[in-house]
Amino acid sequence: MTGTTNVTPALRTATTVARRTAWLAAALFWTAFAVLEGVNHGWLAGALALLFLLLPDLTFLVALDEAPRMAKGQLAPRAVPYYNAMHRAPVPLALLVAYALGPFAWPPAFAALCGWLAHISYDRAFGYGLRTKEGFQRD
Questions:
Q1: 3 close to 98: Cβ distance less than 8 angstroms
Q2: pLDDT tens digits, residue range 38-78?
Q3: What is the Cα–Cα distance from 118 to 94, expressed in whole angstroms?
């Protein structure tokens, strides 16, 4: 055996559906938490949650001038490091742990992290992941 596994298309599809369903559940959880933080802690918490829900996709603007020359579905390679950094779940999760364990207690920051995690989770649920160095979706 050369290290490859024989996975049937049906199993691959079932695994994909299960993974995306789990990401959708996480997205709904983080969205509900962000809304709750906004309701409980005021407009600033809600505004930061919304900002961080949108912020990861603003990395597209890094190389907006190159967009017309890219293939369909391709992100400009110059923007890929920023896009991938903003779309990795361990980053906001680590910040959430630091927030929970540290002396820092500012609810709008927590709401922002919930919004960020919601964005990442929605992307994964709908099939959008990290990018290759060339700017295409990874499998």
A1: no
A2: 999 999 999 999 999 999 999 999 999 998 999 999 999 99
A3: 15
**Residue of 96, 90, 93, 87 whose CA lies nearest to 123:** 87
Q: Which long-range contacts (CB under 8 A, 24 or more apart) does 104-109 make?
A: 107/37, 107/40, 107/41, 107/45, 108/37, 108/41, 108/44, 108/45, 108/47, 108/48, 109/48
Phi, psi (deg, nearest 5) at residue 137: -60, 135
Q: Which H/E stretch holds residue 77?
A: none
Measured distance CA(123)–CA(52) in Å, rounded = 14
pLDDT in tens, 75-98: 999 999 999 999 999 999 999 999
